[in-house]
Design a protein that fits this description.
CATH class of the largest domain: Mainly Alpha
Number of helices: 9
Order of helices and strands: HHEEEHHHHHHH
Number of domains: 3
Radius of gyration: 26 Å
Strand content: under 5%
Distance between the termini: 86 Å
Structural class: mainly alpha
Largest sheet: 3 strands, antiparallel
């Protein structure tokens, strides 16, 4: 009886060992308990605190079989080979020789601006950080550097510009935050809500018929208020991880933003 109980665990452990040793170093894979259908093996992983193993960027430890992010591989400066410091600013500039580094796409837009991932961002803060980066990265300021570093400066400057534009507006910021969570938004999705369709037709009619700045400014004020209300709805939905409600809010915000742009052009 004892042999029958031990055999599945031993066999499963053998196959796990063979699997792990056959995976190339630095592979980035995700595992869950569903990957191990054998109950004895799950028991071994979940209840043996001494059983730990690393797999690519993940580390699995016994008791709860919780994945913990492995430490990032340290980036090194292409010029002086100094390692980046985890506590320092994003590795756009080398902290040692101050050379501009190639773009690292693992650094997200919030990290570039030294902010946590949050929807409520002060525009003055973003603008201040943006100007700080441009003083260091703008191609015109590195014209005496090597061609290689000038190329890096152009790439980094363009990425900082894109980050500033994206985080600077509630709509694009919300879409980006959803993207970071793996939620894609189809901004061109056909509207099927009858109530919203009726509202769209009514507002477009009002914009077309408006023949003075007073009427247009009144529509603009209404759209800005609606945009703010749905922005608040998005913030609430995102905070509660209700991505479906967040997507609905984004679609509404997209429409009202377009109306605002049309009104501004007509003013």
């Amino acid at each position: 009886m004892l042999k029958k109980k031990l055999f599945p665990t031993t066999l499963s452990t053998f196959f796990l060992s063979r699997t792990l040793t056959s995976i190339p170093q630095h592979s980035h894979l995700k595992l869950s308990l569903h990957a191990f259908p054998s109950p004895p093996l799950r028991d071994l992983l979940c209840h043996n605190p001494a059983f730990c193993f690393s797999l690519g960027s993940l580390r699995f430890c016994g008791e709860s079989f919780c994945s913990k992010p492995a430490e990032k591989f340290e980036s090194r400066c292409w010029n002086c080979h100094a390692e980046s410091k985890p506590e320092s600013e994003p590795f756009l500039l080398c902290h040692s020789c101050r050379c501009i580094q190639p773009v690292d796409h693992s650094v997200d837009y919030f990290e570039i601006f030294g902010s946590e991932r949050k929807y409520d961002l002060e525009s003055s803060y973003l603008e201040g950080k943006y100007k700080e980066w441009q003083k260091k990265l703008h191609p015109d300021l590195v014209h005496t550097k090597s061609q290689k570093e000038r190329d890096f400066a152009a790439e980094q400057s363009a990425r900082v510009n894109d980050a500033y534009r994206t985080l600077g507006k509630p709509l694009s910021r919300g879409i980006y935050m959803l993207k970071l969570d793996g939620v894609e938004i189809d901004e061109e999705q056909t509207i099927s809500d009858p109530e919203l369709l009726a509202e769209i037709m009514e507002i477009r009619e009002a914009v077309e018929e408006a023949n003075n700045s007073e009427a247009l400014n009144q529509i603009l004020s209404q759209m800005q208020e609606k945009l703010q209300n749905w922005s608040n709805s998005f913030a609430h939905a995102f905070q509660n991880r209700n991505f479906e409600e967040a997507k609905i809010a984004i679609r509404r915000m997209t429409y009202y933003s377009r109306v605002i742009d049309e009104v501004v052009k007509k003013l």
